[in-house]
Design brief:
Elements (H helix, E strand, L loop, with lengths): L2 H31 L11 H10 L11 H17 L5 H27 L4 H13 L1 H5 L7 H19 L6 H18 L4 H15 L2 H25 L5 H9 L11 H13 L11 H9 L6 H7 L9 H21 L8 H20 L11 H18 L3 H17 L12 H12 L5 E4 L3 H10 L4 E3 L5 H13 L3 E5 H4 L9 H9 L4 E4 L5 E6 L4
Parallel strand pairs: 1-2, 1-3
Antiparallel strand pairs: 3-5, 4-5
């Protein structure tokens, strides 16, 4: 190679590094600054915050996500040593924003280097990931999803690395890949779809069956060792709870999905690209959502009910996005690349099918669990749709779709929950926190998210009545009153859902409402105070 060619290649590489670093820094700042501050909308936010800031790995009460939780605990300990009393939401938020930005950059690298598509097409595809609602929504949040997407992309990179290079070292690289797949699974259990299915399919189409067996043996041993270690770390270990935790079912019984469940799963997937949060701002759609959901979306409704006029942007952005998608698919179809199914595409299809099956069986409406599924979807879309689009000079259509994503997913998505001012938990919980003392007791029917918020604030014990039998609830109440404490019966207990009416628990609560004092909890409900020892 001539010196001129060598220098030119070096300049291109340097320019690519500068672009990647600029995107990384800019996106990390963007994600952190646009992360919704209304933490009430995150199901596990306060639970994770408590476990990360107050507990050690040995205290972590379950094996689910134990590697991710452990890594965040270590990170928080280091930061807290430098900045005492650091806010765990800020610490984890910065970490996740950086991981999310890195995932976008690595997606571009994956597509341009390993799939060989044009760099512009690779960046446009990475842009679709960067601006998709599910990814953006949790990019800087107290959640595992930024890490999950980054791990997903890293595992795909690792798969390509394992099958390339010196054939004599293939076995060693497959062993390393097995360890990587296992670590990803231990960080976030649904990553087992990649480790147990997608990567083996990729290996099967690229190398020998013997190497697939080697991969499974190594990955299986590492996963088993990790789960045993997590189980032994838990002082209150219970084998049944541990298995349920690993399977990530949250206690949900696995049943064959019906048509409605399948429809919910499809909707949840597409919601990851364009937010449907605007639906919470309208009373008819609120009622429809509640009527077709097992639990009420109280926190989301509370926020969206106070939303500004910005959420109306969906009236324009949804049809525009639909038109752009139709145009993009039309162009791509006319210039369809007739290449055979590639190993990475086969792996991505298996990944998507497994993810869909898992969610349809366990949690059909759970759009958050679909977030890592954006990665395999884009691995298929990039070479089959976006690259042909760019090659025919129509890349502006994809750029326009990204712009629509930005506008829609902010005004009709993240912006609805941007402010902490309308936090459901704070509106409902702050009056309780102001009144309650260390000897008091909160009695909650089923809102375990709210119980975790109260637990995070460290004010006073809470009992979720629906999880306990009649005797336990009565004993807890009596013990509190005997000490001169106050029992706070939340409105959901005093006027329970139909499932509690007529139950023994309902009868217990009614005994204490006779002399109770009613207090208002912000604008979102009320509670009843029962004080003093019962005579």
């Amino acid at each position: 190679m001539s010196d001129t060619a060598h220098n030119s290649h070096g300049q291109i590489a340097s320019g690519q590094i500068v672009i990647s670093l600029t995107v990384l820094i800019g996106l990390a700042a963007f994600y952190f600054l646009t992360t919704p501050q209304n933490y009430s909308t995150g199901v596990d936010s306060y639970s994770y915050a408590y476990r990360i800031s107050e507990l050690t790995p040995a205290d972590t009460p379950e094996v689910r996500l134990f590697l991710w939780i452990m890594s965040m605990q270590v990170l928080y300990s280091v930061v807290n040593w430098i900045v005492p009393n650091a806010d765990p939401f800020v610490v984890v938020g910065i970490s996740n924003a950086i991981q999310a930005a890195l995932a976008v950059v690595l997606m571009e690298r994956l597509l341009s280097i390993h799939l060989g598509i044009a760099r512009r097409a690779a960046w446009l595809t990475a842009g679709l990931l960067a601006t998709s609602y599910g990814f953006w929504r949790f990019a800087g949040a107290m959640e595992v999803y930024a890490s999950a997407v980054l791990i997903s992309i890293l595992l795909v990179h690792a798969g390509f690395w394992a099958v390339k290079g010196d054939p004599e070292r293939l076995t060693k690289r497959v062993i390393v890949l097995g360890v990587c797949g296992a670590v990803g699974t231990l960080a976030y259990q649904p990553m087992g779809i990649i480790g147990a299915l997608a990567l083996p399919v990729f290996l099967l189409m690229r190398v020998s069956l013997r190497h697939v067996f080697i991969y499974y043996a190594i990955a299986g041993l590492v996963v088993l060792a990790g789960l045993i270690a997590a189980y032994l770390l838990d002082a209150n270990a219970n084998a049944g709870v541990a298995v349920q935790s690993v399977l990530d079912t949250d206690g949900t019984p696995v049943v064959l999905p019906g048509f409605r469940d399948l429809a919910k799963t499809f909707v949840a997937f597409f919601q990851n690209f364009m937010s449907v949060n605007w639906a919470f701002a309208f009373e008819p759609t609120r009622q429809l959502i509640d009527a077709n959901s097992e639990t009420r979306f109280t926190a989301e409704l509370f926020s969206a009910g106070r939303a500004g006029a910005g959420y109306w942007v969906f009236v324009v952005t949804v049809p525009v996005a639909f038109g752009l998608v139709i145009s993009i698919l039309a162009v791509a179809f006319r210039n369809l690349n007739r290449m055979q199914l590639q190993p990475v595409e086969a792996a991505a299809l298996v990944w998507l099918l497994a993810q869909f099956s898992m969610l349809a069986l366990i949690i059909p409406g759970g759009f958050e669990a679909w977030i890592p599924g954006i990665v395999p979807a884009l691995l298929i879309v990039a070479p089959r749709v976006i690259d042909p689009l760019v090659q025919t000079g129509r890349g502006t259509l994809a750029a326009a779709l990204i712009a629509v994503f930005v506008v829609h997913n902010w005004f009709a998505g993240n912006n609805l929950f941007a402010s902490s001012e309308y936090s459901y938990f704070h509106d409902r919980g702050d009056p309780l926190i102001d009144l309650a003392g260390p000897d008091d007791l909160f009695v909650i029917a089923r809102n375990w998210e709210f119980e975790r918020f109260l637990n995070y604030t460290g004010t006073t014990p809470a009992v979720i009545a629906i999880h306990e039998d009649e005797g336990v609830v009565r004993d807890r109440i009596e013990a509190t009153l005997a000490k001169g404490g106050t029992v706070f019966l939340l409105d959901e207990v005093a006027a329970p859902t139909p499932e509690l009416i007529g139950s023994s628990l309902h009868a217990v609560v009614q005994d204490y409402l006779v002399d109770a004092e009613r207090i208002q909890l912000g604008v979102s409900g009320h509670a009843y105070l029962v004080s003093g020892p019962r005579g």
